[in-house]
Structures are given as structure tokens and as C-alpha cells.
Amino acid sequence: MDTFLIWAHRGASSLAPENTMAAFKAAEAAGAQGLELDVHLSRDGVPVVLHDETLERTTDGRGAVKRFRLRELQQLDAGSWYGPEFAGESLPTLSDVLSWAEDRMLINIEIKTASAATAVLELLADFPRARILVSSFNHRLLGKLAQLAPELALGVLVDSPFWRLALKRAVRCGARSLHPRQDLVSRAMMQACRRQGLAVYPWTVDDPGRLSTLLRMGADGVFTNDPGSTLAEAEALGEI
Ligand code: G3P
Ligand code: MG
Questions:
Q1: pLDDT at 2
Q2: What is the rounded CA–CA span in Å between residue 232 and residue 92?
Q3: Known catalytic residue: 179?
Q4: 135, 110 contact by CB (below 8 A)
């Protein structure tokens, strides 16, 4: 098989606050080949990296991300909630992460809000060396992206048992990969994806037993919060 890919989910989010530069740097240090990050849009149209629509869980701010301008979002502390040693860690822009990661790692940009798509595409033009995979649960949006940027690698996220429908959409938009919730993966899914030439990257896999099962089924990689341990387990299973 080709290289089994370890994608650091929101960076190495078991070691550092998710979706921060600290988490992305920890992912590289742990040996992950790729990083996954989530993108929303600031009020003034800048793609910013965090998971939730709102600020409460992972910053000291309150309210919807889209109501704040970039310079306001950049004042926030996105690290203290995780641990005092990360106090002052800022909420990165997508541009910050691409600048750092473009020559280091594969980058999976998960677009959380359709309104961010155009700004993301515009930004990608500034990073021609970056190895990008764009994914979304919004399959209609992926179809639109396929038309706007036919060369862009796309991944279709799946969190429902109706994966055959998602697979059809993936084929229709020329996606490279299916990203199913890990408990949805089955041999039937793997075979169907193989037939269509799609890679399969399940999320989120932190359990060694599950990793071993997914490897046996032929997964092409996994998203994990703990890339160092997952890499070591995959190596021990002889897959890397
Ligand atoms: O891209 C895989 C995974 O990140 C999807 O779910 O909620 O963690 O963004 P979520
Ligand atoms: Mg995500």
C-alpha cells in the first residue's frame, strides 16, 4: 500500500490547544505527515482557524466568530482553556498556518462555513507550494469548489450511515478521498471506495484496537488527536 497517512486532528490536539500553532508544531514534532484544521470567517472576511462557530469553548471570547473583526479575534487567548502553559496562544489565521506549514506538511482544510470558501480559494493562490486537501460536510459546497477550482484535491466528510450517497457525491465532484466517522467504516465501504479510486481517511482514531481494525480493512490513513502514539502503533503493526 502507499504510505499510511497520519493526519493530526486540529493539530496534535491531545498535547496542545486544538487549532493553534502550538498544536500544529507539536503535530510536526510527533511525526504526523498531515494536519487537519477547521476554518470559519471573521466579520471582515478573513479565514480563521478554529472548530466551533462560537468562541466560548476554545478562547476567552464570547459569541459568534463571524461577528468579530480579525484584529479583535487576534486579541483573544486561545490557549489558557487548555492549560496555563499555553496562555497567550493566539487564534491563527489560515494564512498564518499555511505560511508555516506549506513546506512542512500536508494540510487538510476543513471548511466549516460555506461563506469562507471564496476567501479560502483566494488565499490558496498565494501558497502554490502548499499540498492542500479541502474537505467539508457540506457536499454541495464541495461540488461548487470542484467547478471553481478543478485541480483542488477534495475530501468528502461523512457522519451519517448514508455513506453510499456521500460516495456518489464524492465521485460526482471528482473528490480524492472519503473522510468517514471512524465507526461508520466497513468492508463494504472500503471496497466501494476502492472501486472508485478514493482514499479513505477515518476520524477520529485514538484507540489502538480500532486503528488495528481500520488498518486491516485497508484505510489509507487516519485523523488522530495523538499523532505520536498513533504513528508508533501503526509502525508496530508493520504499516509504516
Ligand atoms: O475532518 C475530520 C473531522 O475534523 C471532522 O469533524 O467536528 O472534528 O471537525 P470535526
Ligand atoms: Mg475538523
A1: 62
A2: 29
A3: no
A4: yes
Q: Which of 10, 160, 203, 222 best tests ligand 1's pocket when mutated (most atoms within 8 Å of CB)?
A: 203
Structural domains of the chain, ranges and CATH numbers in brackets: 5-54+94-236 (3.20.20.190)
Blockwise average pLDDT, block size 10, the chain, 240 residues: 88 98 98 98 98 98 98 98 98 98 98 98 98 98 98 98 97 98 98 98 97 96 98 88
User: Nearest bound ligand to CA 178?
Assistant: 1
Residue 114 Cα to ligand 1 midpoint, Å, equals: 15
**Measuring from each residue's beta carbon to the nearest atom of ligand 1, which residues come in under 6 Å?**
9, 36, 38, 51, 110, 135, 157, 179, 203, 223
Which atom of ligand 1 has the smallest separation from the CA of 51?
9
Predicted local distance difference test score (pLDDT) of residue 1: 43
| 171 to 139, 175, 182, 198, 219: CA distances (angstroms) | 11, 6, 20, 8, 18
